[in-house]
Amino acid sequence: MIAKRNRIAVLLFLFVSLGLACSKQELSPEAQVRLRIRELEECVRKRELSKLKAAVSERYRDSREQDKKAIEGLLAYWFLQNQKTYVLTRMVSIEAQESGAVHTDFFAVLAGSPVASFEELSKLQGDFFRFEIKWVREDEIWNVVEADWRFATPDDLRAFWEEDAEE
After folding, report:
1. Which of 33, 66, 89, 101 can pair with 70 through a Cys bridge, CB separation 3.0 to 4.6 Å?
2. Number of domains in the chain
């Protein structure tokens, strides 16, 4: 009976894996990057630093002249300073480029307690950032090759809240 359950479980796993693999190939680059961002949000929540580091391309460079090693240091420092980190993101734009890269522009809230929605932000202490990231596909995985980030400005927040009110 146990052996039969194991075989059924393995078969279900294979079917699900094959289904996901097939469905990911059919997804647009933008949809694939959206999924990648969700995966990385979960890595932040679970404090999986090695997976976050792996998402940074070896070719990474940014406007601050930082490379992959510098970003890995920033990630490690963040986790040392923040025992728990919860992430909530809101996409501003996502666009596939002719080069095959995908450019994203999004807001992210990094907080020490769970954030279920942006409406809860006024009650929480956290950092509100705006990220612009260029993603490239390397070995079938979307990785960060360029990034720019800053604290969100009052104008960003106002535009963000007005967008929320329209929805």
Report:
1. 66
2. 1
